[in-house]
């Protein structure tokens, strides 16, 4: 056995021991704070590295309080739980459930409870940050692609995007930008590897069906989700979701059953051994956000959740073309349009274009919710309009010359250069 293998085993054993000790620490917390933490540790192996580190940091922050200081911090919440009557609730402490959320939301003290949770988390995270060594800031990139199949007018495509970014006319074939970023010796993946990244959650490729024009990013080097490849799984999950009754308690049981079901026969080959991505997809499908129905909703929510949960260095989100909703069917209640109606599918070019443009903006807004946005460059490419919208990270705004036209090669060079340069402002 090599030294590296021994070190890895030692780290694994040390981490397992620490996680086990956190279980005892969670029992010291107020009852209503336990489900989320217990649920995350139960699903530890399916968490992304960012989630694992954040969870460990939080628990280490709790651990840093001496017993009397921790009791003082938690005392107001314990009194509030007593006033709310939590001890008489059927409150699941193992994981977040709809029943838990319903019990809390129906309480007259719900707003006060939320404020107390925030107060405790702020205090614990402050303690954790005081003792932890924080990693340096890293340059990041988000690329949203409105494919050539969707009709956009160059003069109007960015009319609702505000003045937070710069419009760029693309002098050449706009599809080449993605190819240049994903192919060749100066590709994004190769650059991340050179910078020491071997983690697949640092690079995401999310495809709504139109297809990335390159296959150079092979399996196992990126977190790749393709809506078309997930089609069989999506239909099976949708069928199970439609069995959910109108009862919160039974709904929790049904959703837990869906999460625990063996979906192996329906996973595409590229996700067979990707436990984290499989859990991610099932969570996404069960979150009630339309990802089960529309491919473009899948792209937007997958991108937003990837940014929230994994904080990737680079993310590509490519939208697609959907069919028109069929009359006399129930999209709002998640009916499968292909099965509920015998009418043939009809491509909805204009509707898909409207969806994609709005949802691409939502990805930008999602990225701007987090501190990492100060180091994140955002590019949205409208391929049919040969146009792009570029939002600069804070560190580049003062030096940007604001060109109005650029070639695909120039745009790709700017983005690679951005990723290659450590941020001057560590925000």
Written account of the structure:
There is one protein chain. The chain has 427 residues and is an alpha/beta fold. It has two domains: 3-131, no CATH class; 140-420, Alkaline Phosphatase, subunit A, CATH 3.40.720. It contains 16 helices and eight strands. The chain has helices at 3-26, 34-42, 49-63, 67-84, 98-106, 110-131, 176-182, 188-194, 231-241, 248-260, 275-285, 295-310, 337-340, 349-367, 394-397, 408-420, and strands at 140-146, 166-170, 203-207, 223-226, 314-318, 376-382, 387-391, 405-406. It has an eight-stranded mixed beta sheet with strand order 4-3-5-1-6-7-2-8. Strand 6 and strand 7 form a beta hairpin. The longest helix has 24 residues, at 3-26. 31% of the residues are buried. Mean pLDDT is 87; it is low at 1-10.
What's a concise summary of this model?
With 427 residues, the protein is α/β, with parallel strands linked by helices. Helices cover 47% and strands 9% of the residues. It folds into two domains: 129 residues, no CATH class; 281 residues, Alkaline Phosphatase, subunit A (3-Layer(aba) Sandwich), CATH 3.40.720.
Please identify, by name, the CATH architecture of the largest domain.
3-Layer(aba) Sandwich
Query: Strand count, sense and closure of the main sheet?
Result: 8 strands, mixed
* Global geometry: globular
The residue fraction in helices comes out at 40-55%
